[in-house]
Design brief:
Largest sheet: none
Shape: flat
Number of helices: 4
Number of strands: 0
Strand content: under 5%
Radius of gyration: 24 Å
Helix content: 55-70%
Length: 153
């Protein structure tokens, strides 16, 4: 099995746990004299079973990610950490450029002070574009590895 397949199964298990959590909460209490739509206790047992399986998928994926070598990007784990940081960096740069570039310079009176930008918007946009490019390129390499490397036991 390839890493990508295991990631899909992990995501399915996570969605299933969330659905079960919602159903458990919905059926945990019911009005006296009526029956709940589903047995919260049975749903809890099923959630435990799905969570046990999820733990296995997570451990195998993490073990594989630590072992997969992506060359210049390091291990898959290191590449994933870099991708997370690139996403955050892009978000920060874009937000800074948006805030500095927003034209809220409307003045009702000439005596009011006008607002000026504290950051170089063009430079921030250029940096954000460069980070977005790095992020796309890294993500392609990660996706390729997900479809070419086998999941470890």
């Amino acid at each position: 099995m390839k890493i990508a397949e295991a990631l899909s199964l992990r995501a399915d298990a996570q969605r299933r746990v969330e659905q079960l959590r919602h159903r458990i909460v919905s059926n945990a209490r019911f009005q006296e004299g009526e029956e709940p739509a589903e047995s919260a206790a049975d749903l809890l047992v099923e959630a435990d079973r799905v969570l046990d399986g999820l733990e296995v998928w997570i451990a195998r994926i993490n073990r594989t990610n630590a072992a997969v070598d992506l060359g210049a990007d390091g291990t898959m784990t290191e590449a994933l950490a870099r991708r997370d940081v690139l996403r955050l960096r892009h978000s920060v740069l874009s937000a800074a450029a948006d805030a500095a570039g927003s034209d809220t310079g409307f003045r009702q009176l000439r005596s009011e002070l006008r607002q000026v930008t504290a950051l170089p918007v063009r430079e921030l946009r250029t940096r954000a574009d460069d980070v977005a490019r790095q992020l796309r390129e890294l993500d392609v390499r990660i996706q390729q590895a997900n479809w070419t490397h086998d999941l470890l036991e």
